[in-house]
Design a protein that fits this description.
Distance between the termini: 50 Å
Strand content: 15-25%
Order of helices and strands: HHHHHHHHEEEEEEHHEHEHEEEE
Number of strands: 12
Number of helices: 12
Largest sheet: 9 strands, mixed
Length: 353
């Protein structure tokens, strides 16, 4: 049984996520989560669904797991009253009017929603590929292609295809003109160096809960984690699912540490390891193992077999702008680390330093 203190802490986590949703342009989710926090303190249906997760901390993204589960019910046409207020299925966002229907869904689908909380959120945000593509251009500016691209915490691997999407910025664009995914106004600042078409000869990832984007269930899960009132994100996801159907990229069911233990460098290529907004979900022991393996791979790197570690993660850096989603590149041989820029949490825009 949760204590009052634990429920207050849980409500605080939900309120922080509500504030983040408001800041990132989702008034529907901001309004609904504010009401979820109130319902927790009132021992309403939200408390029944979230029971057992009172001690989940902020990085576990409990609120987003809940919202993903509810959105899935809407997408499955199992919550028709709530669907009226979800733009993802043609509704009109109105958190105040939506709340009674949302609360009814919590009550009527309690067991299903509670079961879904055991899985980490699968927000395979395609906008973050803007940071990846720009980072890769910095990589090939220092070393010639081809590239072998690998991703930790890849979810469905949608961001393993940066060479098939287009990023636009005020002075032009990068990528195929007929790309199904267009990251409009994706870059600002000092645009990454132009290096022609990227040559990626291998691409793969890992995830402890991999999603197959070529299946109906996989597409439904990925869509459920996009905030329902953010239609541009949904449009990007649709384009990325089209790419996934025709450009193979395996995502192995592995921990990040196991995936890296099997990773080897290859002569005549640059091996790039990439990840975005997944570090917070790793246990401390696994973080230590990943760091140690990165150093090993760095020591193994040569002029013929290069290695680069590219990340977009929330960090606090006293030497720069404090807390931000930094795009950081470390390259070997040499091990030089550079902060290339900062990105919005969902990737767009990425501002290059």
């Amino acid at each position: 049984m949760a204590t009052d203190v634990e429920w207050r802490q849980g409500a605080q986590h939900v309120r922080r996520q509500a504030a983040a949703c408001a800041e990132m342009g989702s008034p529907l989710y901001a309004g609904l989560l504010t009401r979820v926090a109130d319902d927790l303190l009132a021992s309403g249906p939200a408390a029944d669904v979230l029971a057992g997760h009172e001690r989940d901390d902020g990085p576990s993204a409990l609120a987003l797991r809940l919202m993903g589960g509810v959105h899935r019910l809407v997408l499955e046409r199992a919550a028709p009253e709530l669907a009226t207020f979800y733009p993802s299925v043609g509704g009109t966002a109105d958190p105040e009017r939506a709340w009674p229907a949302f609360r009814n869904v919590l009550s009527s689908h309690r067991d299903q929603l509670a079961a879904g909380l055991g899985q980490p959120p699968q927000t395979n945000e395609v906008g973050r590929a803007a940071a990846l593509l720009g980072g890769l251009l910095h990589v090939v500016a220092g070393r010639p292609p081809p590239i072998r691209l690998y991703e930790m915490g890849a979810s469905a691997g949608l961001n393993l295809r940066p060479d098939h999407l287009r990023v636009t910025f005020p002075a032009g664009s990068v990528g195929p003109p007929d790309a199904p995914v267009v990251l409009a106004d994706g870059w600002s600042g000092a645009i990454p160096p132009s290096a022609g078409a990227l040559q990626i000869v291998d691409r793969a990832g890992c995830d402890v809960w991999p999603v197959d984007p070529t299946t109906t269930d996989g597409r439904l899960l990925l869509t459920s984690y996009v905030w329902a009132d953010q239609l541009p994100r949904l449009e990007r996801l649709r384009g990325a699912l089209e790419l996934a159907a025709r450009v193979p990229a395996a995502v192995h069911k592995q921990t990040a540490a196991d995936f890296l233990r099997e990773l080897r460098l290859a002569p005549g290529t640059t091996t790039v390891l990439w990840h975005s907004v997944m570090w917070q979900y790793l246990p401390d022991e696994e973080k230590r193992a990943v760091r140690a393996r990165l150093e090993e791979l760095g020591r193994e790197a040569t002029a013929e077999a290069g290695f680069a570690h590219l990340r977009m993660e929330p960090e606090t850096r006293a030497d720069l702008d404090g807390h931000a989603f930094y795009v950081v590149l470390r390259s070997w041989p040499g091990g030089e680390e550079r902060v290339l820029g900062t990105a919005a949490p969902h990737g767009l825009p990425t501002h290059w330093r």
